[in-house]
Design brief:
The complex is a heterodimer of chains A (112) and B (119).
Chain A: E1 4-7, E2 10-12, E3 19-25, E4 30-31, E5 36-37, E6 39-44, E7 51-55, E8 59-60, E9 68-73, E10 76-81, E11 90-96, E12 103-104, E13 108-111
Parallel strand pairs in A: 2-13
Antiparallel strand pairs in A: 1-3, 3-10, 4-5, 6-7, 6-11, 7-8, 9-10, 11-12, 11-13
Chain B: E1 3-6, E2 10-12, E3 18-25, E4 33-39, E5 46-52, E6 58-60, E7 68-73, E8 78-83, E9 92-99, E10 106-109, E11 113-117
Parallel strand pairs in B: 2-11
Antiparallel strand pairs in B: 1-3, 3-8, 4-5, 4-9, 5-6, 7-8, 9-10, 9-11
The chains are: A mainly beta (112), B mainly beta (119).
Chain lengths: 112, 119
Amino acid sequence: DIVMTQSPDSLAVSLGERATINCKSSQSVIYSSNNKSYLAWYQQKPGQPPKLLIYWASTRESGVPDRFSGSGSGTDFTLTISSLQSEDVAVYYCQQYYFTRWTFGQGTKVGI
Amino acid sequence: QVQLVQSGAEVKKPGASVKLSCKASGYTFSSYAMQWVRQAPGQRPEWMGWINAANGNTKYSRNFQDRVTITRDTFATTTYMELSDLRSEDTAVYYCARVQGQYYYMDVWGKGTTVTVSS
């Protein structure tokens, strides 16, 4: 299985400041046939299911604020929150769907 | 709107089985696959299995291969996940989630069903 490792495990960011979360996969999640990165990002708040934010590494899901952005390719990916809002306090997970044995990172807790 | 409504919380004894349901609405049921994902307290989500809602084909995580069965009822637009031989470590929240493109990311999630395994 592909192992997903996030860093850091937690971070504290002031309101209005930038938050950056990293995700590394144990092998490349790019398919050469379409040059797409099979990587998604989810946000999870306490007592709620994960919510899809980003797919194909950088495509924002409909309705997701544009302060959320995804980047990266191959094995290294980044989720950036450009200006942290109070409602962004949550745990963020990366997930690969390159192999149909879907795996998630261990999560990064973002607080203020 | 697109919704996945899951069945209520369960309390089971070790060795028992549990069968959870996930009713879909607001979209063409057979056009999307469904996943089951569980999350133990404080842990990352863990993929359990996948079902093609159109033909019933399934794929299971090696971690649950012999204990999990996923089925669907297209007329009821409902997916089921049965987990047998329950252990205390199966205590978790169990989610169903719709899969985009049959094999891609999960774009709609149910609210989850809490399963507690305790003697």
